[in-house]
Design goal:
By secondary structure, this protein is an alpha/beta fold. Helix content is 43%, strand content 24%. The protein contains 11 helices and 14 strands. An 8-stranded mixed β-sheet has the order 5-8-2-1-11-13-14-12, with helices on both faces. Helix 5 crosses helix 6 and helix 8 runs parallel beside helix 10. The longest helix is centred in the middle third of the chain and has 25 residues. The protein is globular. 40% of the residues are buried. The N terminus is likely disordered.
Length: 297
Amino acid sequence: MDEEKNSVDPRLDNEHWANVLVQALPYFRHWVGKTVVVKYGGNAMLNEDLKKNVMEDIVLLNTVGIHVVLVHGGGPEINTMLKRVGKESRFVNGLRYTDSETMEIVQMVLTGKLNKDIVGILLQEGGKAVGLSGVDSGLLRAKPIQSGGEDLGFVGEVTEVHPEILQSLINQGFIPVVSTVALGEVGDSARYNINADTAAAKIAVALNAEKFVQLTNVPGVLRDVNDPKSLIQRIHLSDVDRLINDGIIAGGMIPKIECCLLARNGGVPRTHIIDGRVPHSLLIEMFSDRGIGTMIY
């Protein structure tokens, strides 16, 4: 094996890496000083190796002068904790009913555990990170929502985003890490569980972000869900309704696309759904001609 390794012409390897760096240079120039909002969840959050890859990517982006805001969910971890305490989940039209006891667990898991775990990894990777929730500095305000006329308890919809705390942290070189627990509207002291994808899209709009990225557990939008090679790399806004009517955009992909539309219609130029199971997918999307996943433009 050593002889085979030594027989490889090092000039070929050097040329390959030089080409990679040359290709990446224009992207570095473009993104420096710009804001990118990343929604983080799915398998990339459960697998420790992938989690480390994501944090390495974010620290690198921050190090070269790209402003990254990381917004995270935590559904699987919430499910685990509910089972541990013997709390049975109830769903209304596919949405989890969140009573006061469940809301306490949601807040504990998202803001007390996961948020600090993510901040800790970013710090270990050499980054500057600060964890906060939507409650801090009144970042996110929300109102309760219903589904089919039925009450969902403390499940909320974001009505206001006050991004000043995020902008202050960004200006000081920090990576804000946001858990999506929101404060009620003025006069309502309750806390609300917020869909992380939607919250991230609204934060991207409020920050005038240049890019909004959802890290998920699928390659992107597929023409055939059973064929990863059928990835649609670019979807124009005008084609979304047709793809939904044709059943190509369906199921759990619809709300992700809706979040992309929310960000895009709010002025975010680039919105993406990329595969968080691919190591360093964020860097591939940001700094290469090939890109990865699906872009809504």
